Amino acid sequence: MELLEEINYLAKKKKEQGLTEEEQQRQQELRKEYLKGFRAKFKTQLDNVEVEYPDGTVKTLKELRNKK
Q: What residue ranges do the domains of the chain occupy?
């Protein structure tokens, strides 16, 4: 089962009938894994955002962050 499918399945089951202790732990693990992947992808997207200065130079946010 895919990550999001399993998260959604457990969320629906929690609303309808509740979860066992094991299922609750699994749900938390899946959420952490999902958020870890989401944050990594989001960081990559932000790193590739380009900023154009009035003088015409263009730099990515990653380049700007690395200068500090």
A: 3-67
